[in-house]
Amino acid sequence: MGPDGQSSDSMWEQVQQAPPDPIIGVTDGWRADPDPRKLNLGVGAYRTEEGKPYVLKAVREAEQQILADPAMNKEYLPISGNAEFNRLARTLALGPNSPAIREARVATVQALSGTGSLRVGAEFLSTHLPASFPRIVYLPNPTWGNHKSIFGKAGFQVREYRYFDAATRGLDFGGMTADLTAAPPGSVVLLHACAHNPTGVDPSREQWRQLLELTRRTRLVPFFDSAYQGFASGDLDADAAAVRLFAEAGLELVLAQSFAKNMGLYGERAGALSVVTKSREVATRVESQLKLVIRPMYSNPPMHGAAIAARVMGDPKLNAMWQEELRGMAKRIKAMRQVLYDQLRARNIPGDWSFVLKQIGMFSFTGLSRSQCEMLVKKWHIHLTLDGRISMAGLSAATAPYLAEAIADVVANA
Ligand SMILES: Cc1ncc(COP(=O)(O)O)c(C=O)c1O
């Protein structure tokens, strides 16, 4: 349609069909698949041994308490969200003895789960990094698919650093440190706090120490994405070790936290963005500017998920229940690694499959090629992202043998 409004064509005729999201699209494909053997190994959400979504008991209990609370209302939250949730969230990540928290040097706002926290953080950095800093972000290769768009939309030039070594299916630490050493000073470096998605490969404690020194030396701005705290090892403190190492060394850093996986609050969109600064005064000013990012984006965040998370973290009984359930979820995923490994070994599939046991967290990065993955989808009705990432959480003792049989077939015949 022309601006004169004369044509009968839609003014949207020129709009192109967008490709489906590579991760969300997997679940759409799985839903549409009529085969009864179908498996969804694309989904980044915990499933029970029966393949069902799981609502944590601590979460159900917290919801009941919220419902029964006569003080509960549906008023707007402040722009920065639920203050108690923010306090508990940053303490969860930085630790109860964090010097930065004690000195009130941390600005925290509630945001829309991990994605929204990353987006608000990227926007803040893009506007408020010193003028002399380049707007460049370094992402691991590979990384969670959304990182590129999030930082790209915020005006960053996106670059990659080497991360995954296809030969060893482990960390390419030499490549990583070489690429980050060569980064222009003032670049942002995105680091997965634990349980790297999609590879399940994390730096060791000693390697984190070296990365800390490198970050300091090269004057990079560390941005931690913490989407799996407690979900990786079952231990909330162990999974926060890298973030705490950097914060306690006195570095200024940015931290996006998600409660999607570790509290099973996927659709509730509970997350927090923290900026660790050098002083209380700077933190206060940073928080005021974070609010200016949020206000024209969505005004203020949703209340229910944060209210649940605040109760679960803040109530000693619910907190203990939560940690018990977290350990249980992490344990089931680890057990699936062993079951799958045994099943693969039993079929004498060529190659070293021990990476299945070594990788950490929800995913295993199999190294299967695109054509092998396509054959898994088409012939075996096993739905996964075509980069070869499988969700260990989507697997059960009953389905692991079927997956191993399918992998044996595609390795031999794709
Ligand atoms: C590495 C990483 N970051 C962030 C997210 C964001 O998740 P959400 O926005 O659901 O909290 C995910 C989810 O899969 C992730 O894997």
UniProtKB/TrEMBL annotation:
<keyword id="KW-0808">Transferase</keyword>
<dbReference type="InterPro" id="IPR004838">
    <property type="entry name" value="NHTrfase_class1_PyrdxlP-BS"/>
</dbReference>
<feature type="domain" description="Aminotransferase class I/classII large">
    <location>
        <begin position="37"/>
        <end position="407"/>
    </location>
</feature>
<dbReference type="InterPro" id="IPR004839">
    <property type="entry name" value="Aminotransferase_I/II_large"/>
</dbReference>
<feature type="compositionally biased region" description="Polar residues">
    <location>
        <begin position="1"/>
        <end position="17"/>
    </location>
</feature>
<dbReference type="GO" id="GO:0006520">
    <property type="term" value="P:amino acid metabolic process"/>
</dbReference>
<protein>
    <recommendedName>
        <fullName>Aspartate aminotransferase</fullName>
        <ecNumber>2.6.1.1</ecNumber>
    </recommendedName>
</protein>
<comment type="similarity">
    <text>Belongs to the class-I pyridoxal-phosphate-dependent aminotransferase family.</text>
</comment>
<dbReference type="GO" id="GO:0004069">
    <property type="term" value="F:L-aspartate:2-oxoglutarate aminotransferase activity"/>
</dbReference>
<dbReference type="InterPro" id="IPR000796">
    <property type="entry name" value="Asp_trans"/>
</dbReference>
<dbReference type="GO" id="GO:0030170">
    <property type="term" value="F:pyridoxal phosphate binding"/>
</dbReference>
<dbReference type="InterPro" id="IPR015424">
    <property type="entry name" value="PyrdxlP-dep_Trfase"/>
</dbReference>
<dbReference type="Pfam" id="PF00155">
    <property type="entry name" value="Aminotran_1_2"/>
</dbReference>
<dbReference type="InterPro" id="IPR015421">
    <property type="entry name" value="PyrdxlP-dep_Trfase_major"/>
</dbReference>
<keyword id="KW-0032">Aminotransferase</keyword>
<dbReference type="InterPro" id="IPR015422">
    <property type="entry name" value="PyrdxlP-dep_Trfase_small"/>
</dbReference>
<feature type="region of interest" description="Disordered">
    <location>
        <begin position="1"/>
        <end position="20"/>
    </location>
</feature>
<keyword id="KW-0663">Pyridoxal phosphate</keyword>
<dbReference type="GO" id="GO:0005739">
    <property type="term" value="C:mitochondrion"/>
</dbReference>
<comment type="subunit">
    <text>Homodimer.</text>
</comment>
